[in-house]
Amino acid sequence: MKKDDYEFKERISRDLETRRAAYKILGVEENAGNEALKKAYRRASLRYHPDHNPSDSDAHRKFLLIKCAYKLLAEDEPCDMLLEEIKSWRTVPDDKKYRLDNPWGHFLWWREKFF
């Protein structure tokens, strides 16, 4: 395999993972249209806005992640903050049945989880 092919696959994999995370953050299906994205963005923005959650020290970060997720899905603008957030998430399921360091293991875990 060429180095360029590997880098291309990594870029595509990161993009797909970022988009899945964005859908998860907004709480919408992966086939959601622009109107559904806009409603989910407004709902999540109101819920996690720092002014509405003065006691939550993490509200500002959550609010920015919601904004990044919406921009990625609705306007196709990538956001570095979203990538950093994904890296901090735990990627290994609790049962440790599948290896998620490769696409096939990730697919098998995802298939079992959702189907």
Tell me what you see in this structure:
- This protein has 115 residues and is mainly α.
- It has a single domain, classed as Helix Hairpins (Orthogonal Bundle), CATH 1.10.287.
- Helix content is 67%, strand content 0%.
- It is built from five helices and no strands.
- It has helices at 3-26, 34-48, 59-75, 80-88, 103-114.
- Helix 1 crosses helix 3 (59-75) and helix 2 runs antiparallel to helix 3 (59-75).
- The longest helix is centred in the first third of the chain and has 24 residues, at 3-26.
- It is globular, with a radius of gyration of 16 Å.
Secondary structure topology:
Blueprint: H1 3-26, H2 34-48, H3 59-75, H4 80-88, H5 103-114
Helix pairs in contact: 1-3, 2-3
